[in-house]
Design a protein that fits this description.
The chain is of the alpha+beta class. 32% of the residues lie in helices and 25% in strands. A hairpin with a 2-residue loop joins β2 and β3.
Length: 158
């Protein structure tokens, strides 16, 4: 009589566990939402330039890539631009400023008789500069830039 070899139930369970672990490891690896080289910019100046271009062009994908992935949600840039541009904003400008030993990217503009201001902390992620979506504890919008601050890049929004 011909005997058909049976695979032990133990080996089937081991194979399924190994497959499950491989899938979990793959998703953990891919969770970052892009390679670190795709995030932020090589320097603070390049980060400010990229942010200026993204705001000027209203490019939500480019603006989203400037942020450290774990500090903002996947639709942060889209929602931010929707709120920012709901009404016309004049004199919009982005500046990299130092305040209390930290660097910030600050967006300022005027909407009628009100001032619009948002600030993001500039952090280093390896060799790259990225923005943090965590709100700064300091009142960066109410403070003046320190003497070491770089001049702002004006963004014309029409």
């Amino acid at each position: 009589m011909l005997r058909i070899p049976r695979i032990s139930l133990l080996w089937v369970v081991c194979a399924l566990v190994a497959l499950w672990l491989a899938v979990v490891c793959y998703f953990i690896h891919e969770e970052g939402g892009g390679a670190p080289a795709d995030r932020g910019a090589g320097s603070t100046g390049a980060l400010a330039t990229a942010a200026t271009a993204a705001v000027r062009d209203r490019d939500t994908a480019a603006f989203q890539r400037l942020f450290e992935p774990d500090s903002v949600g996947p639709r942060y840039a889209s929602q931010y631009f929707t709120r920012l541009f709901v009404r016309p904003v004049a004199g919009l400008r982005l500046t990299a400023e130092s305040y209390q030993d930290l660097r910030y990217l600050v967006l300022r503009g005027e909407r009628g008789d009100r001032t619009v201001c948002s600030a993001w902390t500039i952090q280093r992620d390896g060799a790259r500069s990225v923005l943090s979506g965590v709100p700064p504890l300091a009142d960066v919008c109410g403070a003046k830039a320190s003497a070491g601050g770089t001049p702002g890049a004006r963004v014309d929004v029409r």
